[in-house]
Design a protein that fits this description.
Helix content is 8%, strand content 41%. By secondary structure, the protein is mainly β. The N and C termini lie far apart (78 Å). It has one helix at residues 2-32, and strands at residues 58-67, 70-72, 75-78, 84-87, 90-92, 102-110, 113-115, 118-121, 125-133, 136-139, 142-152, 162-169, 175-182, 188-193, 195-196, 202-204, 207-210, 220-228, 231-239, 249-259, 262-265, 270-272, 281-291, 297-309, 361-364. It has one helix and 25 strands. It is globular and about 55 Å long. Strands 1, 2, 3, 4, 5, 6, 7, 8, 20, 21, 22, 23, 24 and 25 form a 14-stranded mixed sheet that branches. Strands 9-10-11-13-12 form a five-stranded mixed beta barrel. Residues 127-181 form the DUF5666 domain. It comes from Methylosinus sporium.
């Protein structure tokens, strides 16, 4: 017995050491080179997200719908006057928040109240308007469609003017804009999934990129640079770490695409738990997700606000076409005729334009945190600002 038992212990010890070494190697590699598991048009997640790390709270990513605190994904989230606000990574003030900004934050819950001390905002594209067409723009190679109720800064709407666009991406990478505002002079900025265009170059949307590593292909990244000779000469690249680190529970506004039981975000990440969802094709939703022990993402509950069917679905761009299913455009750049600011964009009678939910519907799975679905409605036309 003794002769048999000791070798087994030695083998077990060796096996345990090997497993620990392998796990440490994988963890180190994951830390060096995180994978893109971005949620919708909003973000980048590591393959095995932080489960809590003592932070707790609910990670929230979504569009500001109203003030009086901020209303995001149906939750009223309070913040102090000295809350830390960053827009595109740069320090800003609470007074710089606008209805239509897409925010990322960690909300701490106390009973039915939610509070935060840090608010992150990241605009999908900052650059010059290249073309204007009905209910949309082309900005730095990105097709931009206006959501119903989108806030458009009146002075920002002319070809050549620098603008910053906030919104969510469809699976075909069109940006559904909730806010278009004037931007100060500076570097051009793009946030999106790096793809290979029909001519073999790396690109985000229809904007070719130069000076970016091949390793970024398929990743959702933030790039900055200057446009030269039709390409964006990239001077800085960063992973779009958008979902806040720390929470184990997230409430995210996004576009999803479902085929059978497979549900993917706009950046291509797969979410588990899609068999019972009430739609096929593309839908806009507020989805509650958490991480599984296997490092995947699982849907806990979901509420759709708009179903689009095949519209906006991911597909390969045709050679010579900058956008999938792109409508014809003016041969020469021009301003949009007969546009009112801001209520004329994407109204109920528009032939195009995407809905922006005030109160989502169609719950699936467990209920959302207490207080979901309240919050009130956005204010009248114009760029909203925080109340005092």
């Amino acid at each position: 017995m003794s002769a048999f038992r000791h070798p087994t212990r030695r083998r077990f010890a060796a096996l345990l050491a090997s497993l620990l070494s392998s796990a440490m190697t994988r963890a180190h590699a994951a830390g060096d080179k995180p994978r893109d598991n971005g949620i919708g048009g909003t973000g980048y997640l590591s393959a095995i997200p932080d489960r809590d790390n003592g932070i707790g709270g609910t990670g929230i990513v979504g569009t500001i719908r109203a003030f009086g605190s901020i209303i995001v994904n149906g939750l009223r989230v309070s913040y102090p006057a000295d809350a830390e606000v960053r827009i595109d990574g740069r320090r800003a003030r609470v007074g710089d928040l606008r209805i239509g900004h897409v925010v990322s934050l960690v909300a701490m819950r106390d009973g039915d109240k939610f509070t935060t001390t840090k608010i992150q905002i990241l605009r999908e594209v900052v650059g010059p308007i290249e073309q204007v067409f009905d209910h949309g723009l082309r900005v730095l190679g990105q097709r931009v469609e206006f959501a119903r109720g989108a806030k458009i800064e009146a002075g920002a709407f002319s070809v050549g003017r620098r603008v910053a666009v906030s919104g969510l991406r469809l699976p075909n990478q069109t940006i559904v804009a909730s806010l278009v505002e004037s931007a100060e002079p500076g570097a051009a900025q793009l946030v999106g999934v790096v793809t290979r265009s029909f001519d073999g170059r790396l690109a985000i949307g229809a904007q070719p990129l130069s000076g970016i590593a091949e390793a970024m292909l398929g990743q959702r990244v933030l790039v900055r640079g200057a446009e030269t000779h039709g390409a964006l000469d990239v001077t800085s690249t960063a992973a779009d770490v958008w979902l806040p680190r720390g929470p184990s529970d997230f409430l995210v506004e996004t576009y999803l695409e479902r085929h059978g039981a497979t549900v993917k975000t706009a950046s291509g990440a797969t979410l588990d738990g899609g068999r019972a969802l009430p739609f096929q094709g593309v839908a806009r939703a507020v989805v509650r997700i958490d991480a599984t022990l296997a490092g995947a993402w699982s849907i806990r509950s979901l509420r759709t606000s708009e179903t689009l069917g095949k519209r906006g679905a991911a597909e390969e761009p045709r050679a010579g076409s900058p956008f999938p299913n792109a409508p014809s455009r003016p041969a020469e750049p021009q301003t949009a005729p007969g546009v009112e600011f801001p209520s004329g964009f994407g109204g109920p009678d528009a032939p195009r334009g995407y809905g922006t939910p005030a109160i989502p519907s169609d719950p699936v799975g467990p209920s959302f945190p207490g207080g979901f679905g309240g919050g009130g409605r956005p204010g009248p036309g114009g760029l909203g600002r925080p109340g005092r």
